[in-house]
Design brief:
424 residues, alpha/beta, Aspartate Aminotransferase, domain 1, Aspartate Aminotransferase, domain 2, 2 domains, four-stranded antiparallel β-sheet, 17 strands, 37% helix, globular
Length: 424
């Protein structure tokens, strides 16, 4: 498509966008009486309309029924988490018994690592991408220590080639082959939080398995951003949060995927809790753990209802629209953002270094940008102009045009604000 850095052009794209009405289903923070230009859905998504009423419903049922709300509430609490199975499975390309909503992201990652990181002999290394989200690296190190190993002997952080920001697929696959029988686990972020690089998950999984290793993914920046086919790709496990692209509120519930070939294996080591116990005998309160034949076997406690309400509202939107349609818009919307940034650079002379891959197949909707000569004060300057972006040390601004609620006009107006700042 031949883009134009022009308001009427951006508005024409919005007028022809079948998904544009979805924007009206979200609540925007206001700046001087107008919606902000919100580009931080990769950090915290906007609130879907209907969340407040849904929370009030649960409060009313708690007041009305007390403990009997587990069975008498409008949305029965006892099986509340089960209502997410269809939508979550569709979101990540899984079978319904392979997914469960529970806990939060890093808790779930550690629970899964208990099962899927089992070093034996010289097979004990964990391979992960350059600069993962810190929680992942902390989890890998702590799991190594649980096995009496030194993290420095176990953790292998891949580095890009000199002068490059992103990892090349051939280098990742070569590293997996090189580690060979020393490799116990490959665990990447599906999309790297810092650079926005989308990794080739299917190929990484196949290579890990060929080397005899397990393979899992942290999908915090992937779920709700790009389509996934975890079951078909043969991924062993994955986990994700729901407060970013999935718009489910700060600290909202996490998600877990465990492949079918594992959920049927009752002998797997895991940390056990009563909510993962066989549902038919759970209330007999016996002493011996009998894991469910589903991803629910990794859950430990009953559902945090109030922490799941917003996700129920948001997930229904994703189920209704579908990731394929969202991805189709996202590719064009992100390409337009890239075009606008180039236009701003040409018009102002301000150097904007994009560290996110240019190939749409290697990124989601996030563009990470180094603004030469500026520090994090730029984020505050933008905020004063009604633009919300975020900063990651040491020098990166992340911009995420989310297809559910960002418009092409948003992107154009962002360019106008940046241009105004840079010509001062």
């Amino acid at each position: 498509m031949d883009f134009q850095y022009d308001l009427s052009f951006a508005q024409s794209l919005d007028a022809n966008d079948a998904l544009a009405p979805l924007r009206q289903r979200f609540l925007f923070p206001q700046h001087e009486g107008k919606p902000v230009l919100y580009f931080t859905g990769n950090s915290l998504g906007l609130q879907p309309k209907g969340v407040k009423d849904a929370l009030i419903q649960e409060c009313d049922d708690w007041a009305k029924y007390g403990v009997e709300g587990h069975f008498l509430a409008k949305n029965q609490w006892y099986g509340y988490h089960e209502a997410f199975a269809h939508g979550a499975a569709k979101l990540v390309g899984a079978q319904e018994h392979e997914v469960v909503m529970m806990n939060q992201l890093t808790v779930n990652l550690n629970l899964l690592l208990i099962t899927f990181y089992q070093p034996q002999g010289k097979r004990r290394k964990i391979l992960f991408e350059c600069r993962p989200f810190p929680s992942d690296q902390y989890a890998f190190a702590s799991q190594a220590r649980l096995h009496g190993l030194e993290p420095s002997d176990v953790l292998v952080e891949m580095q890009p080639r000199q002068g490059e920001y992103n990892l090349r697929k051939e280098d990742i696959l070569q590293k997996i082959e090189e580690l060979g029988d020393e490799l116990a686990l490959v665990c990447f972020g599906g999309v790297n939080y810092f650079t926005g690089q989308l990794f080739p998950m299917q190929e990484i999984t196949a290579a890990a398995h060929a080397a005899g290793a397990m393979c899992g993914f942290d999908l915090a920046h992937t779920a709700g951003n790009v389509p996934l086919q975890l079951h078909a790709w043969g991924v062993d496990f994955a986990c994700w949060c729901t407060y970013k692209y999935l718009n489910s509120g700060p600290g909202s519930v996490g998600g877990v995927f465990v492949h079918d070939r594992h959920v049927k294996n009752k002998s797997l080591l895991r940390l056990a809790g009563w909510w993962g116990h066989n549902k038919d005998t759970r209330f007999q309160m016996g002493p011996d753990f009998d894991p469910m034949l589903s991803a629910e076997a990794w859950s430990m406690s009953n559902a945090p209802i109030f922490n799941m309400v917003a996700h129920r509202i948001s997930l229904d939107i994703f189920t209704e629209v579908g990731m394929e349609r969202l991805r189709e818009k996202s590719i064009v919307l992100t390409a337009y953002l890239e075009f606008v940034l180039n236009a701003v650079q040409e018009r102002t002379g301000q150097k904007l270094i994009r560290i996110t891959p240019q190939d749409p197949e290697q990124r989601g909707c996030q563009l990470s940008v180094i603004v030469d000569g500026y520090d994090r004060k730029l984020v505050h300057t933008l905020y004063e102009q009604g633009v919300v972006v975020d900063w990651r040390e040491p020098d990166v601004i992340r911009l995420a045009p989310v297809p559910l609620y960002n418009s092409f006009e948003d992107v154009f107006r962002l360019g106008q604000v940046l241009e105004k700042i840079f010509v001062r």
